[in-house]
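Pasting as-is:
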Amino acid sequence: MNCILLPAADIAPPYAHISAPDQITHINEVLKLQVGASLKIGQLGGQLGTALIESIASDNIQLEDVQLNIKPPAKLDVTVILALPRPKVLRRLIIDMTVLGVRDIVLINSYRTQKSYWQTPLLDRLDEFVLEGLQQGVDTMAPRITLQKRFKPFVEDALAGMITKGAIVAHPYSELSFLQYLQQLSFMPLSVAAKTTLPSVVCIGAEGGWIDYEIEQLASQGCQAVHIGPRILRTEAAVNMILGQWLLHNNQC
């Protein structure tokens, strides 16, 4: 945890309190902070800032001099449509995308998504994984996460409305690379390129990728298939590699 995030109900400036066991353990055993030490905190959905530790008990840490005056980092202007992965991968992906600052995440069914994946209890713990990612990335604004269990109706009825600045679908067998796609944007008139820059939607398959039918359906709604090199990457690697472009762009703006 690079900051401690608290719900608004636990903050009453200039005071606040921490009661979550994992946060208390982190402060005591990892940070090893004592009374009087300064602590980075934030309000979920609000501002970041600092506080001083007033007292420490086994089940509660009282804070004083709470100052929340720092805006959270800007979200990445992108929606990630991700084929629901294996449960053991889901937690890591949600944390990674939250750390990177993805604005919207859509978990969707695909041909290679096993039905049992939709029954995993981890889907009931998404808020927990988001909180872990926010505290790692020092952010307070959670991504919006939606579940879409039916591929075709979602693509036909909802996808086009999400695309405001282009869309790509990661596909290792595409003839066009992601770099070539970005280079094409650079040849546009400046006024157009400034509005386009990076696509607003990224579609990434689970392990095994999308099948041809799914690529065709996504393409029919304006998604350009691109590859990111000759290697077939794990979903986690593909997500981080592709979204790194948005992270770099945000830092340059």
